[in-house]
Amino acid sequence: MKMENEVAIITGAANGIGQEVAVQLAKEGARVVLVDLNSCEKTIGLLGDAEHLECLGDIRDPEFVKAVVNRAVEKYGSVEILVNNAGTASRKNIETMTLEDWDRDLDTNLKAAFLFIQAAVYPHMKEAGYGRIINISSVSGINGGVVSGGDENGRSGPAYSASKGGIIALTKWVAKELGKYGITCNSVAPGATATGITAGVAYDTSNQVIDRMGQPSDIAYAVMYFASRESSYTTSQVLKVDGGISIG
Ligand SMILES: NC(=O)c1ccc[n+]([C@@H]2O[C@H](COP(=O)([O-])OP(=O)(O)OC[C@H]3O[C@@H](n4cnc5c(N)ncnc54)[C@H](O)[C@@H]3O)[C@@H](O)[C@H]2O)c1
Q1: Is 111 helix (H, G, I), strand (E, B) or coil?
Q2: What is the mean pLDDT of each run of 10 residues along the chain (248 residues)?
Q3: Would you call 221 a catalytic residue per the annotation?
Q4: Ligand 1 in reach of 38 Cβ (< 6 A)
Q5: CA distances from 195 to 29, 216, 238 (A)
Q6: What distance in angstroms lies between residue 220's CA and the mean position of ligand 1's atoms?
Q7: Which of 160, 203, 221, 233 is catalytic?
Q8: Whole-model pTM above 0.90?
């Protein structure tokens, strides 16, 4: 129980990677704050007796974000771990992408992370002198998005890549700023992982060193390292968990 009584906010906890992260954190004793647009019923069903708080709403709304952090602190007294995981991925190309598509991905994948970091750190993590912030980026934020099997629909769009590149830069900025308060900030960059976001896309994994789709647990184990007290000398890192697709 490495995280006994620590409080972890996980966005996008109703499904996929966020669900698995919540389950693994809870297994280590964390009290999990489940944030999503959609019901977290399935996740709650996997938590057993673990302490949890469900907060349903839109993370693009600054008032909702503040309310989540306030509810967590009112109920449990602190916030030790923040996992900015919720994400959307438009697959339209740059010719057909609308401003609405662009804003949705940028606001969900990047703006919301800024809002949560601000609300969790000031004052809670800063005053406690401790925090673990983990931002879920993507290999698309490093390489501009894979083209899978020649199927144009399999490639995440320009807004997605830009938002994920942005969150990597934000991770580094925040790590430099907050290290002095005992707060680390790192990122996990998944490759193709079997979740709702990739459902219906035929990924060709034969060019990966490990020829299979990732599973949410593959990503969650990496998050668990960054979320642990044992990772206290590690900050500003971007850990690719991608079956080796990004080996040069
Ligand atoms: N699955 C992959 O192949 C892959 C690869 C690289 C990165 N990622 C990243 O992993 C993260 C998790 O995605 P996933 O694969 O588990 O997808 P998913 O679709 O299963 O889960 C995303 C969750 O985010 C929630 N969400 C979306 N917009 C929201 C909003 N505005 N407010 C609150 N909740 C919202 C959804 O309801 C959903 O439960 C995302 O940031 C995604 O970009 C996934």
Answers
A1: helix
A2: 94 98 98 98 97 98 98 98 98 92 98 99 98 98 74 78 98 98 98 93 88 97 98 98 90
A3: no
A4: yes
A5: 25, 7, 21
A6: 13
A7: 160
A8: yes
